[in-house]
Design goal:
Blueprint (H helix, E strand, L loop, with lengths): L7 H4 L9 H10 L8 E3 L9 E6 L4 E6 L2 E14 L7 E14 L5 E5 L13 H12 L4 H4 E6 L38
Antiparallel strand pairs: 1-2, 2-3, 4-5, 5-6, 5-7
Length: about 190
């Protein structure tokens, strides 16, 4: 599993159109944790492609964002406690839009909504916020660039699924550099 990039200099690189988007999509899916992630952009894994994926639990399917762009956005509001995998330990208040129209690399357009006033629409939930954040990543924009304010939040370490038996005194497979017995051994059952 590839480690998520937290280096602001890498995250602020404007992504380019991928020559092999299928390969990038495959890498993103392989490194996606459905229990912890809502969406993942290629630049967050150090890949400079305009590609992101989102697991859609409502459709039980992947949403593949290959060179998507927002072509219309209306109804701005302040979204509270937006977080990003690449900026652990911070929550941000950002300006987002309740309705966005996105266009994919084939010219197809889809409207996504966030908020109760549009509850009759099929795509009305947090996915609209996730898409806005991933498309910001395409343009080298991170949350701290657009935040109205931010605050510290606790970082919850990801438990390690070891798969093979690791000795108590061996290095922890999470990559922390600590011994397994002092790191993730007790997190296995959580």
């Amino acid at each position: 599993m590839i480690k998520v990039v937290t280096d602001r200099n890498i995250l602020k690189i404007k992504s380019v159109l991928s020559k092999t988007p299928e390969k990038t999509v495959s890498i993103l899916k392989e490194n996606f944790n459905k229990k912890r992630y809502l969406a993942l952009s290629a630049i967050q894994l150090g890949i400079n492609d305009r590609v992101a994926v989102m697991w859609d639990p409502f459709e039980d399917a992947w949403v593949e964002m290959v060179d998507w762009k927002i072509v219309d956005k209306i109804l701005p509001f302040q979204f509270v406690d937006e977080t990003c995998l690449s900026l652990p330990g911070r929550a941000y208040i950002t300006v987002r839009y309740r309705q966005i129209t996105v266009e994919d690399n084939k010219g197809n357009q889809t409207v996504w909504y966030y908020g109760d006033e549009n509850a009759e629409y099929e795509r009305c939930d947090i996915r609209a916020i996730a898409i806005q954040q991933e498309l910001d990543h395409f343009d080298g924009i991170v949350l701290e660039d657009i935040a109205v304010s931010s605050r510290d939040i606790p970082i919850i370490p990801e438990p390690v699924n070891v798969g093979v038996k690791v000795g108590r005194n061996e290095p922890c497979p999470c990559g922390s550099g600590r011994k397994y017995k002092h790191c993730c051994l007790n997190k296995k059952g959580e």
